[in-house]
Amino acid sequence: MKFKNILYENNDGIALVTMNRPEALNAFNKETLGELSEIIDFAEQDASVKVLIFTGQGKSFIAGADIAEMSKLEVLEGRDVALKGQAVFFKVENIGKPTIAAINGFALGGGCEFAMSCDIRIASEFAKFGQPEVSLGIIPGWGGTQRLPRLIGKGLAKYYIYTGEIFNAEEAYRIGLVEKIVKADELMTTAQTIAKTIMSKAPVAVKMAKGSINNGLSMDLKSGVAYEAEAYATSFGCADRMEGTAAFMEKRKANFAGK
Ligand code: CO8
Asked: Taking the complete model, does pTM exceed 0.85, yes or no?
């Protein structure tokens, strides 16, 4: 698949999605958002794609929304772009396959919001994070006011959103915004190792776990665990459950068919 601002390749089931507008630090313009949306639709349908890894070309992951483009928008156009980005990030969050953000550099504003829509975030030691929108006279509009407090808690989210402070990978790890920090030259191999580990597990079980976590987080606890029981039952009815338990009993490696 060929796009103007994003590189896409499928390496043995791992879709590598590289934001490729380094001259603008991979900022999201409308065109790039459209391309990302197409990629998610495509990867969802392509059964050969098992896991997606997102990263950025050059020194940035994604430096946010394209400020030059944003500065020309009327109020209602701004609202439309906010809604469009939110819809695309919902798609990213809810694709039925695991997603990993391999954050190589700046993950600011919309770039941080995008990373938060992925399932797992790993950061290079040189990554930088922040929601600096208030410096531009706006607030995060692609889910930042909602996903950041869900990930790091209300107080810290307010601190970083009100101050616009840019912080490093160590702080991102300390507050739970990223799951791992690695040396810059180990970022992609670490992301691939995580992807391969997930791929060795029962695919339907992983998909059910994702749905259960994502859906449960917008429910009260009782409804969430009820949802979990149904997702559990789905995994229990799969051939993969028979294979997984048989492999354990027979002391061999499971060979999951994803059914
Ligand atoms: N948009 C457009 N261009 C950008 C962006 C951006 N977000 N970030 C960097 N660039 C461009 C620069 O303009 C520059 O271009 P040029 O070479 O033509 O002058 C090039 O990328 C390189 O950038 P710098 O020279 O600034 O690089 P530095 O290493 O000196 O600085 C920084 C790097 C600190 C990342 C700096 O570029 C910066 O502060 N960028 C802006 C970060 C930011 O504020 N992001 C948040 C944007 S707002 C947002 O994301 C809201 C999302 C919700 C939108 C809702 C709908 C509208």
From this structure: yes
List, chain by chain if needed, residues with CB within 6 Å of any ligand 1 atom. Answer: 24-25, 27, 63-68, 70, 78, 81-82, 85, 106, 108-110, 132-133, 136, 141-142
Distance CA 140, CA 138 (A): 7
Q: Which of 9, 31, 69, 113 is catalytic?
A: 113
Closest atom of ligand 1 relative to the 64 alpha carbon = 50
Q: Is 228 a catalytic residue?
A: no
Q: Low-confidence residues of the chain, pLDDT below 50?
A: none
